[in-house]
Amino acid sequence: MGLLSRLKDISTGKVKAFLDEAERPEEMIPQLLNELQSQQQALRNAEAKSLTAVRAAQRRLEETMGRALRLERGAELALKKGEEETAREALREQLKVEQVVPRQREQVEQAQKILDDVRERGNALKAQIALVKEKEVQLKTRPEPALSPDRTEPLLKKVAEMEERVLTEEAEAEANREVNQNLRKRSLDERLFELEKNDEIEKRLNQIKTGN
């Protein structure tokens, strides 16, 4: 989310201060408005994508939880039919499926947080656009200034003074650390799960047998 990283440092107060301190703000307003409105459109697109991601993550979680429930019911049915080995197999698969649920819940929370951030920045950007337009109206009563050379450097870059390269490197470093940690944990987690799952299968099988 490089767009969000940039916009978090562009507060309404900074935009106002930038215009107040500019020698000829009327020359900068059209370009600044254009950049802000472009960012607003990008945020609208990001909101649509984020909402899709939230719904997809929720759907995956619901499907996983539904499969775990079906496996539990299948184990009960298999045991009633006298197919104890089938019941064991269903419970073994249920344990595997349940192991996925916490990670999928976390994915839902992360997707929702991104969506909330996008919407928050969208509201802030809307306020900034309103501020710049208000400033434009105020400046219309002033005499026409002499034209100055075209300024092609993005004004939002001046306001934010953020470098996308640095943000990207930080994100990649964090992702690499997370991947390495997951790789180190996976082997131990798998061994521990193998040690525990047979006892858990027997426990669930006995619960079905006894009706507890």
UniProtKB/TrEMBL annotation:
Keywords: Coiled coil. Residues 101-135 form a coiled coil. The keyword DNA-binding does not apply. The keyword Disulfide bond does not apply. Belongs to the PspA/Vipp/IM30 family. This is Phage shock protein A. It comes from Pontiella desulfatans.
